[in-house]
């Protein structure tokens, strides 16, 4: 039997439609969508939208099921700006899933996926707990959390997780403890906490796998000719587009160059028919 590849995301009711778009793009851009198993962490999704997500995956013969998270564990988590508490729930992924699963790929629910993510499941993790893409927001967060190293800071919107390594290092409890004890340090929520504890335990992926708005909109200035060459390829041919920041394609006046692509994939989902393309914010 062919080994299944596990994709995990998390959403509340407000972002359920946008997760449907992410899943549509994921499953459209792979030759064998039935090889995936999708798990959705339920951050408060209505029964109606749960069914629409199930229908979205079923159209590609892909199983989808829901994971229940211990909400009490996130009492100390701070929600602000455009980030709800549902964003934190990725921290509990290895504890909510079958221990026989070797790897999972976590994807945020504000992404468009244009390449086959199966390629990520074959990479050598080199002993690291997660693989991710550097964050291009230049937030300079590590020193503020007491990390004096010059190591990079990653964006947590896409995480390839070595499940056993995560459990062996007891990462869920460590991250939750950090959140509870350091609320003043979490400007970027769970992403800060993950970086504080995994700063030397993550593998850097090519930035095409998480093309953030800072890169797509040319807000980030490359530090070398080589880096600019790399980012130029990302802008021209991203594997995954991530709508980072508060400016989202479903908001009026959004200038992101992949706004039309968002609506093209929305049209392929049951959300389009049910809500007649109405915005869900």
Features:
globular; Spore Coat Polysaccharide Biosynthesis Protein SpsA, Chain A; alpha/beta; two-stranded antiparallel ribbon; 281 residues; single chain
Classified in CATH, the superfamily is Spore Coat Polysaccharide Biosynthesis Protein SpsA, Chain A
CATH class: Alpha Beta
- Helix fraction by DSSP (H/I, runs of at least 4): 25-40%
- Order of strands across the main sheet: 3-2-1-4-7-6-8
Residue-averaged pLDDT, rounded? Answer: 89
CATH topology: Spore Coat Polysaccharide Biosynthesis Protein SpsA, Chain A
Q: How far apart are the first and last residues' alpha carbons, in Å? A: 41 Å
- Radius of gyration, taken over Cα atoms and rounded to an integer in Å: 18 Å
Give the strand content: 15-25%
Low-confidence stretches: none
CATH architecture: Alpha-Beta Complex
The biggest beta sheet reads: 7 strands, mixed
The ordered H/E elements are EHEHEHEEEHEHHHEHHEHH
Number of helices: 11
Chain oligomer state? single chain
Structural domain tally: 1
Gross morphology? globular
User: How many strands in all?
Assistant: 9
Which secondary-structure class do the elements indicate? alpha/beta
């Amino acid at each position: 039997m062919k080994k299944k590849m596990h994709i995990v995301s998390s959403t509340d009711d407000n972002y359920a439609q946008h997760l449907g778009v992410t899943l549509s793009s994921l499953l459209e851009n792979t030759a064998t969508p039935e090889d995936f198993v999708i798990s959705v962490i339920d951050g408060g999704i209505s029964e109606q939208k749960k069914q629409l997500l199930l229908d979205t995956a079923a159209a590609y013969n892909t199983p989808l099921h829901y994971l229940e998270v211990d909400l009490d564990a996130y009492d100390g988590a701070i929600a602000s700006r455009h980030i709800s508490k549902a964003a934190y729930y990725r921290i509990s992924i290895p504890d909510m899933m079958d221990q026989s699963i070797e790897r999972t790929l976590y994807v945020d629910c504000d992404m468009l996926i244009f390449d086959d993510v199966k390629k990520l499941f074959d990479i050598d993790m080199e002993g690291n707990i997660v693989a991710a893409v550097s964050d291009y927001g230049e937030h300079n967060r590590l020193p503020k959390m007491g990390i004096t190293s010059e190591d990079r800071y990653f964006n947590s919107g896409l995480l390839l997780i070595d499940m056993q390594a995560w459990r062996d290092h007891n990462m869920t409890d460590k991250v939750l403890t950090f959140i509870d004890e350091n609320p003043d340090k979490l400007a970027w929520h769970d992403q800060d906490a993950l970086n504080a504890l995994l700063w030397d335990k993550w593998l850097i992926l090519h930035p095409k796998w998480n093309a953030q708005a800072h890169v797509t909109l040319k807000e980030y200035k490359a530090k070398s000719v080589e880096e600019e060459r790399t980012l130029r390829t990302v802008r021209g041919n991203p594997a995954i587009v991530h709508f980072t920041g508060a400016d989202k394609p479903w908001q009026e006046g959004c200038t992101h160059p992949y706004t039309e692509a968002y609506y093209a994939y929305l049209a392929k989902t049951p959300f389009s028919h049910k809500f007649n393309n109405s915005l869900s914010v």
